[in-house]
Structure formats: structure tokens, C-alpha cells
Design a protein that fits this description.
Number of helices: 6
Structural class: alpha+beta
Order of helices and strands: EEEHHEEEEHHHH
Distance between the termini: 32 Å
Helix content: 40-55%
Shape: globular
Number of strands: 7
Largest sheet: 7 strands, mixed
Length: 187
């Protein structure tokens, strides 16, 4: 295990015939510890639990801004945090099952990009420490990250058949994300 993952194999939790072998440390901290995380995973990922398959992954279905998911690994499953949610009143409510893998791939890129964007204090510190060269370097890095997000959004849109692009869930998601990038909200 690494510093970013916690070994769950000793707890003998399984889903779909495979052990839940590890969890991201940040997910565990969000639950307040391993015991609480294991309890939630055991209640969610049962045959009649509130989950759905998204490509090779299995996501909890619930409201809110984020939810746990299981991703296949050589050791079984690894639990991590999906930075959105599929349930009632959630950002991705209404996304049909057949499009969830493409939407989830976009959400993962969006989260990575937003988490890696330079903040104003970081920009000021770079300006103080390295002047124009440092600021230019950070600006180019930011543009590269925004390009990654736009490419991912374009890939999502391209993956949808034309009739699906006008479905309310798709129109809302694609418009909101394009506006967020164009106006600098969430990245």
C-alpha cells in the first residue's frame, strides 16, 4: 500500500465475488476512519443496495456532491471518491445508464484539472519568487489544464448521439460545463 491508499484486505469486505482490497486515504479521512467507511461500503455495495455499474466501475447512487465508488484492480476493488453523484437532486441525476461511463470520465478529468489549477496566492508567490518567468510558466500550465478539460468536454459531447445532445440532462450538463470553463468558475 502507498501513503495514499489504505489496505482493506484484512477486513474481508467483498463485492461481486471480489475483495475490496484498498481505499484511498482521502476517502477514509472523509468518513472519519476505516470503521465508518467499511460500514458504508458494506451497506451500499450489496445486491439490493443503491449502486450502479459505470463501465468497469461500480458507483454508489445517492444525492450530494460526491459518492464512493469501487474500481477494479489486480487485488479486487479499490474504493475511491467520485467527485459527483448520480442520485436524486445530485449533479448527474437523470443521466441514462448507457452514458454514465462517458460522463464519469469527464467528471474525473474536471476534478483533476480543478484540483491542479493555480490559485491567486500561488500566483502572487510565484511572481514574488520568480517574477515574470514564473508567472508565465504558471499561466501556460493553467492553459494546458483548461485545454485538457475542454478536450474531455468535447469527447463527452462527441460520444453522445445527436438526439441525446438535446436531452435535458445533456443540454444542462454540457451548457453548464462550457460556461464554467468560459467564465472561469470551477476552473
Amino acid at each position: 500500500m502507498t501513503e495514499r491508499t489504505i489496505d482493506l484486505l484484512p477486513h474481508q469486505l467483498a463485492f461481486d465475488g471480489r475483495p475490496v482490497g484498498s481505499a484511498h486515504a482521502v476517502l477514509c479521512r472523509g468518513y472519519g476512519g476505516v470503521t465508518e467507511l467499511l460500514r458504508d461500503l458494506a451497506e451500499t455495495f450489496v445486491p439490493d443496495g443503491s449502486w450502479c455499474r459505470v463501465g468497469p466501475d461500480v458507483h454508489a447512487v445517492r444525492g450530494g456532491e460526491a459518492a464512493p465508488r469501487l474500481r477494479p484492480t489486480a487485488r479486487g476493488w479499490e474504493a475511491d471518491l467520485f467527485e459527483s453523484a448520480w442520485g436524486d437532486r445530485a449533479e448527474l441525476e437523470g443521466v441514462p445508464q448507457e452514458h454514465r461511463a462517458a460522463v464519469a470520465a469527464y467528471v474525473d478529468v474536471r476534478h483533476r484539472v480543478v484540483a491542479d489549477l493555480t490559485t491567486a496566492p500561488e500566483l502572487r508567490a510565484a511572481c514574488t519568487a520568480g517574477g515574470t518567468v514564473a508567472v508565465n510558466s504558471l499561466a501556460l500550465r493553467r492553459l494546458g489544464l483548461l485545454d485538457d478539460r475542454l478536450r474531455a468536454l468535447d469527447a463527452l459531447q462527441s460520444s453522445l448521439p445527436p438526439v441525446e445532445r438535446i436531452a435535458p440532462w445533456a443540454r444542462s450538463l454540457l451548457t453548464r460545463e462550457a460556461l464554467d470553463v468560459a467564465t472561469g468558475r470551477n476552473g
